Every structure is written in C-alpha cells, then in structure tokens.
Amino acid sequence: MVYIFSAIVTGFQGTLLAGLLLAFGVLAVVGNVISGPLTDRYGSFRVGVGFMILQVAALGSVALVHGNFAGLTVAFLFWGFAAFGSGVPVQHRLIAVDPRQASTAISWYSTALYLDVSVAPLLGAAALTAGSLALIPAAGALVTLLGLGTFLLGFRSPRTGSHHPRTVNDASRNVRNRSWVPVTSPTIVKGIPASSRASGRSRSGLG
C-alpha cells in the first residue's frame, strides 16, 4: 500500500518517489529501534496503543495532504515511524501471554504479517478503483483501527485478568526474568534486555 500510493501521488517521478520512500524507511528504522526500550520501560500496552493511534493519525494526515508534497513527506515520516514501531510491543505482548508458547506465537505473528502484506495491495487497488486516491490511506487507517481493537481485546485475556498497564508490566517483567525464552525474530530483540537476549540467541541457534 505504501508503494502503490506513493507511486501514484508522485506521478511515478523517480526523485519524488524515492524521497517519499526514503522518508518512510528512515523513520521506520528509528521507530523499530526505539520501540524496544520504550516497551521495556512502559510496557507493551501503552507503547502499542500509542504507536497504533499515531499510525491512524498519520494515515489520516496522508489522506488530507496528499496534494502537498512537503506536507505529505512529513506525514510519511510519522507513518513509517508508527508502522514499524508498533511491531515490537505487539510481539512482546504475544510472548508475555504465555512465554512457553513464544515460538508458536511469533510464528503465527509472522504468518499474519505476510498475509497482510499480500492482501494490502488488493485493498489499495480496490480503494483506488472506488475513485479517490485519499481512500487508500483511509482504508489503511480503518484496518489499523481494527488492529488496535484486537490488540486491546487481547489484554482482557483470562491469563492476565485485566488490561490495566500495571498488570501488563508485571507480565512483561516475567518475560524478562525468563532468560530461556527463545528469540525467533530479529524484530523482537529490541524488546528484550541484553541479558535475556544473549541467552535467547545461544539457545535458539541464531548465534
């Protein structure tokens, strides 16, 4: 969806298209890097909700300012930051629900992620066919809201008994205290402190 929208809005002009994708990509890296320490400090509930709300706002801004390249570039910065920052707290939460099933949970997360990547172009094309370029980011915002709702429902799991941030932080600390939790994806390394990370690498065979 990122490429479809940016290619069309720039008229397939190489320099403008590269500028938008660069803005998105650079802040995506920043979001992914800092979301781990933020999740360690504030818990997956607050960080995950915050990033998802920011992503909805960014996509809404993209829909509103897509005719202004400077404004669109700023919106793309926040979009990339939020989109890639939200992955770490989501994975952190999946592990915290049941650390013994961490590998299985993250495997399903990866499956859902790739399914999303494959479906997104179809959704973007459908929105474009409906007649408005602004419908592409609007559709993305709607899907993000659905994801946020699902994320919030996950905190009412009987395993934690509450969605209160304090309960979530307690679960997160339990994960960090279990050094044997396998690390199966590079993206969740940022959400696990160095002491657990080292043990996880050696036991998971990632080196």
Residue fraction in strands:
under 5%
Give the class from helix and strand content and strand pairing: mainly alpha
Rg from Cα: 18 Å
Major sheet: size, sense and barrel closure? none
CATH topology: Growth Hormone, Chain: A
The geometry reads as globular
Average residue-wise pLDDT? 79
Q: How many discrete domains?
A: 1
- In total, the number of strands is 0
Order of helices and strands: HHHHHHHHH
Multimer state? single chain
Full CATH superfamily name: MFS general substrate transporter like domains
User: Which spans have pLDDT < 50 for at least 5 consecutive residues?
Assistant: 160-207
CATH architecture: Up-down Bundle
The first-level CATH class name: Mainly Alpha
Describe this structure in words.
The longest helix has 29 residues, at 14-42. The two termini are 34 Å apart. It contains nine helices and no strands. Helix 2 (14-42) runs antiparallel to helix 3. Mean pLDDT is 79; it is low at 160-207. The protein has one domain (2-204): Up-down Bundle (Growth Hormone, Chain: A). The chain is 77% helix and 0% strand.
